[in-house]
Design goal:
- By secondary structure, the protein is α/β, with parallel strands linked by helices.
- The chain has 2 domains: 279 residues, Aldehyde Dehydrogenase, Chain A, domain 1 (3-Layer(aba) Sandwich); 199 residues, Aldehyde Dehydrogenase, Chain A, domain 2.
- It is built from 14 helices and 24 strands.
- A 7-stranded mixed β-sheet has the order 3-2-10-9-8-11-12, with helices on both faces. A 7-stranded mixed β-sheet has the order 15-16-17-14-13-19-20, sandwiched between helices. A 3-stranded mixed β-sheet has the order 1-5-4, covered by helices on one side.
- The chain starts with a helix and ends in a 16-residue tail after the last strand.
- The structure holds 2-aminohexanedioic acid.
- The site of 2-aminohexanedioic acid has 10 residues, from loops.
Length: 509
């Protein structure tokens, strides 16, 4: 563990604020723990209100300068950030594993998402396209253009401590914005690590101070200040629905914009025309991967009644074989939950499942002995439930998978759509009519709808996010860059007359 920390110079107390250079942080010292063994892995000097002010002040100044850089030149900086991340993929992936307990492949996978979005943003910097329109007035030209928006606040969650920052930051940088990052206190060392990797690039490229900044601190004084700060026109936040509602209200009250990526309660429909072997693979990765702590984690299986028995048997067999343990060791597929609170939350959900009439088919126990004594390791759990049970509509951020039976596809889609969340969804079928129904306007109501692949593991090229309680925001690829810019409609009169729109005459004398 020490080697992992030393490689990225994370040993000893870390400064909690970065604006192109490090500011010590005058707030309380924040202890960072690893869920792998419950041990402290570092400390960060968190930011106080004055540090926050200093960061935002620099971000505003940095933005003024950065927006003057030609967009392709900004893209070149992003390209070099992508190269630095490539160089440190394994080191940073290891810090992610250490601080939040992901297995190595998933820690590195997250860094790969950062590299991918950097590549996308480099190209995007040359494609910040506006439209042209035909004016109704003769001798007039009309078009729209996109300008940098301002400093953008990015609030990230523990479960994806580095990738969502990059989805926002790489695109925002290409767009000409400054970015202020407030990471989860449970994963702040990862954020410090990212800045340490990027710092030399910013220096070498002469990027103005404040273009990329980090501010580690609790909700008060840092988080609340960010939400209420009218110098920050856009706040992009990943986290719980409760947190998202608060962010939405606070930022809306000052008429700021938000991008919200909140809870998911993602389902896979398995039809009689499914390739069951494929479905089982996707379900196990989707439900057990990242120990059930992705917002895209598969939480519900809606299976045709004719397949309930074989699917149940296949999943129990697969679940028995999941190697659970130290995520830094090869061969392990499931690490710990983030902390003991998460384990307690899972146990409370299991109680609720039983009280509400569900049946635990497999797993759910808290493990103990050896490394398991950290109190953060659980066995992934399979349950058979009815869709109307209230617990099934909740997102329990743990590896609990609900199985429920359906009779016809319309019913399956209704079950899939009846929960408040709307992030990711999938159907397993080789029948064209079934898959097209699922993808149609009568089908899945989620932001992501997949056929014959699971609910998690989205590529950055698409717009990522979902509907309803998921918050409606979109991050990453497609035309998401527009959210980080301000649109301006421009009309130029190159004629010698002054015709008015709508044919209005307003001639004096
Ligand atoms: C999250 O869990 O917050 O689609 C994001 C996926 C990843 C992102 C998950 N690309 O599972």
């Amino acid at each position: 563990m020490q080697t992992i920390l030393d490689t990225l110079d994370l040993a000893g107390e870390q400064p909690g604020a970065f604006v192109g250079q490090w500011l010590a942080g005058r707030g309380p010292s924040l202890a960072c723990y690893s869920p792998i063994d419950g041990q402290a892995i570092g400390t960060i000097r968190s930011a106080d209100r004055e540090d926050y002010e200093a960061v935002v002040h620099r971000a505003c100044d940095g933005f003024q300068e950065w927006r003057r850089w030609p967009a392709p030149r900004r893209g070149e900086v992003v390209r070099r950030i992508g190269l630095a991340l490539r160089e440190h993929k394994s080191d940073l992936g290891a810090v992610v594993s250490l601080e939040v307990g992901k297995i190595r492949a998933e820690g590195e996978g997250e860094v790969q998402e950062m590299i991918d979005i950097a590549d996308l943003a480099v190209g995007q910097a040359r494609m910040l396209y506006g439209l042209t329109m035909h004016s109704e007035r003769p001798g007039h030209r009309m078009y729209e253009q996109w300008h940098p928006l301002g400093p953008v606040g990015v609030i990230t969650a523990f479960n994806f401590p580095v990738a969502p920052w990059s989805w926002n930051a790489m695109i925002a940088m290409a767009a000409g914005d400054a970015v202020i990052w407030k990471p989860s206190a449970k994963a702040a060392l990862c954020a410090v690590a990212v800045m340490k990797i990027i710092e030399p690039v910013l220096k070498a490229e002469g990027v103005p101070d404040g273009v990329l900044s980090l501010v580690v601190g609790r909700r008060d004084p840092v988080g609340e200040a960010l939400l209420q700060d009218s110098r920050i026109p856009l706040v992009s936040a990943t986290g719980s629905v409760a947190m998202g509602r608060h962010v939405a209200r606070s930022v809306a009250s000052r008429l700021g914009r938000t991008i919200l990526e909140l809870g998911g309660n993602n389902a896979i429909i398995v039809t009689p025309h499914a390739d069951l072997e494929l479905a089982v693979k996707a379900i196990v990765f989707g439900a057990v991967g990242t120990a059930g702590q992705r917002c895209t984690t598969t939480r519900r299986i809606i299976v045709h009644e004719s397949l309930m028995a074989p699917l149940k048997a296949a999943l129990i067999k697969a679940y028995r074989q999941v190697p659970i343990g130290n995520p830094l060791e090869s061969g392990i597929l499931m690490g710990p939950l983030i902390d003991r609170d998460a384990v307690a939350g899972m146990q409370a959900a299991l109680e609720a499942i039983k009280t509400q009439g569900g049946e635990i088919l497999f797993g759910g126990e808290v493990l103990n002995g050896g490394i398991y004594d950290a109190g953060t390791y659980v066995r992934p759990c399979l349950c058979e439930v009815r869709p109307e049970m209230p617990i099934v509509s909740e997102e329990t951020f743990a590896p609990i998978l609900y199985l429920m039976a359906y009779r016809d596809l319309e019913e399956a889609v209704a079950i899939q759509n009846r929960v408040p969340q709307g992030l990711s969804s999938a159907i397993f079928t080789n029948d064209l009519r079934e898959s097209e129904y699922f993808l149609s306007h009568q089908g899945s109501d989620c932001g992501i709808a997949n056929v014959n692949i699971g609910t998690s593991g989205a590529e950055i090229g698409g717009a990522f996010g979902g509907e309803k309680d998921t918050g409606g925001g979109r991050e990453a690829g497609s035309d998401v860059w527009k959210a980080y810019m301000r649109r301006q409609t421009c009309t130029t009169n190159w004629s010698e007359a002054m015709p008015l729109a709508q044919g209005i005459h307003f001639d004096i004398g």
